[in-house]
Design brief:
Elements (H helix, E strand, L loop, with lengths): L5 E2 L1 H11 L4 E9 L3 E9 L4 H8 L8 E12 L6 E12 L6 H17 L5 E5 L2 H4 L1 H13 L1
Parallel strand pairs: 1-3, 5-6
Antiparallel strand pairs: 2-3, 2-4, 4-5
GO cellular component, one term: actin cytoskeleton
Keywords: Actin-binding
Organism: Drosophila hydei
Length: about 150
């Protein structure tokens, strides 16, 4: 934790509720008072990706956030005629272009703390614009993992 920012116990608990128990679709985190990463929004299991993007940007165009999302998609296995449902967890660092430099630096330097705490995340994504956080872009990055 080079930045000195702590990950709250609540963050760890909600992450496990998503990863193990599949109770929620996503969670949005924010750094509070430059001291601790806290839960800001928890998305219900039936929430859409559009709901997620809306909650991610709820703080405004200058606010950075972290997010964990349990992303589900259908995968066509080679040689098979049917598709199977895949679910992958991704951790996103959302730092909009309009965010203050200080906030960008704080969120970027604290990203490692979340990576360390959240075992089981398949993909780390950094996004500065909506195009980098859109469903198509994220799904493409997750599908690349299927080919390996």
């Amino acid at each position: 934790m080079a930045s000195g920012i702590e990950v709250s116990t609540e963050c760890k608990g909600i992450f496990e509720e998503i990863r193990k128990l599949k109770q929620h679709r996503y969670v949005i985190f924010a750094i509070k008072q430059e001291r601790e990463i806290n839960v800001e929004v928890v998305g219900p299991r039936n929430a859409s990706y559009d709901d997620f993007l809306e909650d991610l940007r709820k703080g405004g165009p200058e606010e950075c956030r972290y997010a964990v999302y349990d992303y589900a998609y259908h995968h066509q296995c080679q040689g098979a005629s049917s598709t199977c449902l895949k679910e992958k967890l991704f951790l996103m660092l959302w730092c909009p272009m309009q965010a203050k430099i200080k906030d960008k630096m704080l969120y970027s330097s604290s990203f490692a703390a979340l990576k360390k705490e959240f075992n089981g995340v398949q993909k780390y994504i950094q996004a500065t614009e909506l195009d980098e956080a859109c469903r198509e872009c994220v799904e493409e990055q997750l599908r690349v993992l299927d080919r390996n």
